[in-house]
Amino acid sequence: MHLQCRTEKVRFVKAGPSEGEKDCLAAAVVCGGECLHRERRRKMRFTEVENGLLVRRQNEKLRIEAWGTNALRVRATKYTDFTGRDWALEEEVKGEKRQARITIHEDREAFVENGRISVRVNSAGVLFFYRDGKPVLSEYQRDYAGTESGESRCLKILSREYKAIIGEDYSLTVRFESRDEEKIFGMGQYQQPYLDLKGCSLELAQRNSQTSVPFAVSSLGYGFLWNHPGVGSAVFGKNYTEWTARATKELDYWITADENPAKIVENYTEVTGRAPMIPEGLLGLWQCKLRYRTQEEVLSVAREYKRLQIPLDVIVIDFFHWTRQGDWKFDSEYWPDPKAMCDELHAMGTKVVVSVWPSVDKKSENFAEMQELGYLIRTEHGSNQTYDFQGDCLEIDVTNPEAREYLWEKCKKNYYDYGIDMFWLDNSEPDFGVYDYDNYRYELGTALEVSNVYPKLYTKTFYDGIKTEGREKEILSLVRCGWAGSQKYAALLWSGDVPSTFEALRDQLSAGLNMGLAGIPWWTTDIGGFMTDDVDDPAFHELLLRWYEFAVFSPILRMHGDRGPHNIPPLSDKDWGGGHLYTGHSNELWSYGEKAFEIMKSQLELRWSLKPYISGLMEETTRNGAPLLRTMFYEFPEDEKCWELDDQYMFGDKYLVAPVLKAGMKERKVYLPEGVWKDIADGKEYTGGQTLTCETPIERIPVFERM
What we know:
With 707 residues, the chain is of the alpha+beta class. Helices cover 23% and strands 27% of the residues. The strands form ten sheets. The chain has an eight-stranded antiparallel β-sheet. An eight-stranded parallel β-sheet has the order 32-31-30-27-23-22-21-34. It is globular and about 80 Å long.
């Protein structure tokens, strides 16, 4: 390629290297050498590379590549090269899905196209994305060049703004234009009632009950992954959208465009991974409470369910069954024969889950060795401590592969080999005593740069371990947090330690729906919420039943919670071991009186009837990433009203569910989209396209079957 002399119109034309050199040398005679210098500089602005385009401008390298179905990956850095980390984009993409069509128009602009998505890069390096030729997203820049219309601004606001951290990397802000008509969904789980995230400011960080999965689905027909596991924020403002990373070496995001949300989620899970098939025998009742303190307590509960002829699929052994945090073993005083316990439970058809925390008490039998081997999270300054609940603890650094192997070896020996089927990976954010992210460091980098990937690697520890044992089809971990791609490691997320209030129940509906759009289909909650002050309060019983009825139409039906008050004496006066900590009151189906028991038992029978259907949904999500909890617009994207609904949902493609989200509610409105719908309570059929007022007796919530 060569550039004609500056006295003529500037343009790129195709030419062989030798011809280009000759032309520029000739031009230099006229231009005094300036044209040759400029030609060499401008030749490098747009360069076609494998699978994409490389753009050089000032000190930034920008790379745009085809990456999956109708998708592009965008990276930029001010270093000499990219890090090579794929983070969430771990799935291999081959063939035509990695083949971009590149068009370069002189030195003014370039285009990259992959299927239905394309991007235009102007001379200032600003990006404008299109779906089927129509604009869907563009970077926000208010500088002398950069707007889609080409107009200049004097604000000197850049679309990609790097700020150096002295002695380290960069903080990064990336801005995009906002559209008034756009709605935004996904992003994982936040404790708020908002399904549509437009106007929300979201922290990109992991906390108890907050799970940051930075994938957004837009009503304009695109999905956007912020492919960076560090701490930051996403602000979906009316004036512009802004993504920030507090510490990073490069910009990295992925974008897809397609005809509807289902296709967008399918494209996204193609490159980040899909959940495996759920193990058999887990779709009925899970029983849990805070906390079964002894082997005999667990067995007595399971025996009572058997006596009542209520199949119990899973029973869960919660925290502080151990000696100390980080010992990762049963306290033999209260759990004298775990293998015999598991054998009896298995004979009843019940699988066993045990809680594992990543925290390691300094008095643990494993602490000194782990500290010496460098297997623990480090603090940058101040006290050498990351967690302080019931001990002085550091947490294991699962970004270190050797630390992951160490943890699995302990859990295999002390749990799995006894017959424990699955693991409850609690505190998996990890839960810090103080969320000072700038004070913690992992082997993989500073917490500011990498900490959001921690729960994913924590789950991977147990997925890889059990897979190595040859039981690949029997893997599932109940996890309190996750990140983009956690689903492929058989992660069942639950929504954390949420309050026992109707307001919290309302939040969980939005959390579960947005989590599904963020690619994680296995999701559950503590039925009734986690934190209960008075287990005998009739108001709590009402909440429990409404929560239970919602949970029947969710991926996993799981009883759990800390049922106050804490007035049950401990088993031991020691300050450690399995007997010293408090426990909550009973939390079994029969614990809340005869009426509540009959309602929950009837609802459980409904759940059993749904098992074949739910199993089919699990197979579907393995094929294409479809969530089980689906927003109304996911199933009915052409119905504008469905984009406005946030208090009802689809359970798969067949059941419309309208949970009761307020105390004392006697009736509620339900919108039926186009089609024919049958009320499962009385069998009456209705034509879609109308809003009904439905009664909501305490025994049930409105559910309609799509005919």
